[in-house]
Write a structure and sequence with these properties.
alpha+beta; four-stranded mixed β-sheet; about 55% helix
Length: about 170
């Protein structure tokens, strides 16, 4: 017998255009944690890479985040790097590998990934898509077709994201 209940609608997606050498993205961590706690699996939170040219290690950090995702620990890795953004400024790629080791990830694989560039296309594609939709700084949020720029001010942004997500979720309930 098949289940006659309607298929559950896909969770709304919140794209977070971010770079891991950005102090504004570090400031946004508290909001991202609060959103994950509030919605759990009812909201898909997607990290999108938007490395800024002014940050020397942002592109490598994006690649490292992709490797963390491959190893199943994306958000813990992102948070660990952002919380110590000054260390990334000073130490560069060796810091990215060290954070992986601290989190119990395969640090040698991180080192290899940064050398062989296996995640470059993913970071490039995100950056190109971000530019195409008008992202100019980080963090920028896109949810329900609306773009919210957190690079200028994060004041009231989480509330605005919650309004949009609540509306999307209510719309799913029919």
């Amino acid at each position: 017998m098949s289940d006659s209940s309607p298929a559950r609608a896909a969770a709304p997606v919140l794209d977070v255009w971010c770079e891991l050498q950005c102090s504004d993205c570090r400031t946004a961590l508290a909001d991202l944690r609060a959103l994950r706690e509030r919605y759990g699996d009812r909201l898909e939170l997607r990290l999108r890479h938007f490395p800024l040219e002014k940050h020397k290690y942002a592109f490598a950090a994006g690649q490292a985040a992709e490797e963390a995702a491959m190893q199943g620990r994306l958000w813990p890795y992102v948070e660990a790097v952002l919380e110590r953004v000054e260390e990334l400024d000073r130490r560069g790629e060796s810091f990215l590998v060290e954070v992986a080791r601290e989190l119990g990830l395969d640090a040698e694989e991180f080192d290899t990934a940064l050398i062989d560039g296996r995640h470059i296309l993913m970071v490039d594609a995100d950056q190109a898509e971000g530019k195409a939709i008008g992202v100019t700084g980080t963090p920028t949020y896109v949810v329900g077709g609306e773009r919210l720029d957190g690079g200028k001010s994060q004041e009231g942004l989480r509330e605005r994201v919650e309004e949009i997500v609540d509306r999307l979720l209510a719309g799913q309930e029919g």
